[in-house]
Amino acid sequence: MSFRADHLLGIEHLAPDEITTLLDLADRYADLNREGRRTHDVLAGMTQINMFFENSTRTQASFELAGKRLGADVMNMGMQTSSVKKGETLIDTALTLNAMHPDLLVVRHPSSGAVDLLSQKVNCAVLNAGDGRHEHPTQGLLDALTIRREKGRLHRLTVAICGDIAHSRVARSNIILLGKMENRVRLVGPPTLLPAGCGDWGVEVYHDMKAGLEGADVVMMLRLQKERMDGGFIPSEREYFHRYGLDAEKLALAKEDAIVMHPGPMNRGVEIDGVIADDINRSVIQEQVEMGVAVRMAAMDLLARNLRARRGAERAGVMV
Ligand code: CP
Questions:
Q1: From atom 5 of ligand 1, which residue's Cα is the shortest distance away?
Q2: E strands along 163-240, which residues?
């Protein structure tokens, strides 16, 4: 099996063949989910703990559903009511939970690198559900699966990633993944919302949205992340929508069959016109949510196989 990872911490750690293996399995789970064959036993006897130190709707719900569909015992830690509120550190919290012998730990944390650090302290598989501005690997993978199913391939496509790229872990995971799979990636946004040095990332940078959308196969809109902004990054939301909000006029510059994506949650009327978001002929936003469950099922299935193999080899006294 060409999926060698012990944890899913970021797309940066995955080779193209591992990405393809995961997407192939997720594709099968997506079909089975649609056919109503939703329950499996690949995680039977395993315990999954979800620790979300930041708010989430899509990621937390789909990880919970994915674990339950695969037969795991799933526990959602209520971080607002945990001893973190009494000052317990992330690492002490993780060590405490580790002593209960979980098999899969799903973690979202506001600090970049926190999930990686945690993975070094526990002896189970860790999945990054979003860490600061760093990465959101399952979002990158579900976006890739949605693109592959819609476009029939995941290479030689022109993908315009638009908006608040500076604060976006979704953008970072997508840029890395789409680059590894040999696509042409454009970053489109005002200079204040583009990361310093992004011109060296193997992408094309546009400040003019109309030029950035010209001939694109995929238009990926990003949320304006007001909660991560500590200053005036845009003159006003009205001005931002005028220049960088996706509306019918700007979308008309992309390819006729271009798809519109957004990871959610959306600010309607700020980065995207609600009419475009709801247009079932262009928008694949609901399919992204659907693929989120399938991708998380595939990720946990593959990591559990590796975990079982590693534990089996350790019991047999074999170095892996
Ligand atoms: N896309 C995404 O991560 O959404 P949530 O914050 O609702 O999980």
A1: 56
A2: 184-188, 204-206, 218-221
Does the reported pTM lie above 0.85?
Answer: yes
What is the distance in A from the centroid of ligand 1 to the CA of 144? 16
Q: Encoding tokens for residue 19? A: 């990405």
Question: Which atom in ligand 1 lies closest to the alpha carbon of residue 61?
Answer: 8
Q: What is the CA radius of gyration of the chain?
A: 20
Q: How confident is the model at residue 226 (pLDDT cuts 50, 70, 90)?
A: confident
Q: How far is the CA of 264 from the centre of ligand 1 (A)?
A: 6
Mind listing the pLDDT tens digit for each residue in 50-71?
999 999 999 999 999 999 999 9
Cβ contact 246:219 at 8 Å: yes
Tokens encoding 298: 């595939």
In three-state secondary structure terms, 77 is strand
Which ligand 1 atom lies nearest to the CA of residue 57?
7
The answer to which of 6-20, 221-235, 268-282 has the lowest mean pLDDT is 221-235
Which atom, in ligand 1's list, is nearest to the CA of 60?
Answer: 8
Q: Which string of DSSP letters, residue by residue, matches 249-280?
A: HHHTTS-TT-EEE--S---BTTTB-HHHHT-T
> Which residue has tokens 């591992």?
18
CA of 58 to the centre of ligand 1 (A): 5
Q: How far apart are CA 59 and CA 106, in angstroms?
A: 10
Other C-beta atoms lying within 10 Å of the C-beta of residue 61:
15
Judge whether 106 and 127 are in contact, CB under 8 Å: yes
Query: Which uninterrupted H or E stretch holds 51?
Result: strand 47-52
Closest CA to ligand 1's atom 6 = 56
Does 115 have pLDDT greater than 70?
yes
The residue among 299, 10, 63 whose CA lies nearest residue 177 is: 10
